[in-house]
């Protein structure tokens, strides 16, 4: 798992920057009812998406929450109110917010029971009729049929933490029923073989790739044998699902 405190300053530049953040925020806002007035953004990271959620809907009060001090500090510097908190224990009253968002968060939560706990906590924070919006199947979105995918395929994580099936089941247990879905382009996330090899060695594929019978260095060497080392492959399309609290 990445050290997000150490990664904070460089994070946005290596994750598609403003174009990807704008696409994500627009898709989240499209899934929020017009009457939404308060939003808690879980795993807000550097706040690059959170700021766009706040500016994209006049009158929307947005609070960010992140477990990484480095990330929360970056978000705070962008002018976003932020709390340092785990998604499994949020410092908000029960039924106190209109919406909760979790963009590119659930796929990282590999410990047993954590995704279920985060979704349950989101449900607790929502008022009746409130909406939970989250990315699902994040890692599989990067499988675009490229030669990079062919190299990584035997080593992919067999049970993603954010599969649509699992998330929908956990949401139902938390009193949340499906309400809508949307997609958005992962600008800047179409990686070249050289970039993919570097990301693998840096631990950026920790939630997606589990090398089997091979070391990460050996797997990176296979990526570095592919043609067109500097040419990015296709960009992913990420998926969002929304759930409403009864």
N-to-C series of helices and strands? HHEHEHEEHEHHEHHE
- CATH-derived architecture: 3-Layer(aba) Sandwich
Query: C-alpha Rg, in Å?
Result: 18 Å
What percentage of amino acids are in beta strands? 15-25%
Helical content stands at 25-40%
CATH superfamily: Vaccinia Virus protein VP39
Question: How does this structure look, described?
Answer:
By secondary structure, this protein is of the alpha/beta class. It has a single domain (4-142, 159-191, 234-245), classed as Rossmann fold (3-Layer(aba) Sandwich). Helices cover 34% and strands 20% of the residues. The protein has 9 helices and 7 strands, in the order ααβαβαββαβααβααβ. It has a 7-stranded mixed beta sheet, sandwiched between helices. Strand 4, helix 5 (114-125) and strand 5 (126-136) form a beta-alpha-beta unit. Helix 2 packs across helix 3 (50-56), helix 5 (114-125) packs across helix 7 (164-173) and helix 8 runs antiparallel to helix 9. The mean pLDDT is 93.
